[in-house]
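Lecture notes, unit on binding sites. The following record was shown on slide 14. It pairs a sequence with zinc ion.
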Amino acid sequence: MEYQVINNKTNKVEQVFYTQEDAMECVDFDYSFATHSIIEVISCRGYHRFGCENEGHERHDWYGISTGHWCDECYESKYPYKKSRYATEEYDGYGERLSDDY
Ligand SMILES: [Zn+2]
């Protein structure tokens, strides 16, 4: 997890820290909370597996259990968890569609 110190005027990242305390101290001493804010950036879990450097968003499996933070790209193509208990319908054709010639 990263903490970015953002300049409110320019929206630029001025500093990056790995703990919130460090980021707070930096803004406190070097800048000001009136002009700068801190945002928390959680990187995609694909970073460790595929070298992905995108920002991740929390995902859940179909039990509702958090599977960590994944970016859209990894979520679509490389996500190693079950997204839904009905996922096989789409691919395997199991489902409720009736055949045309019944
Ligand atoms: Zn990713």
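Take-home: The mean pLDDT is 85.
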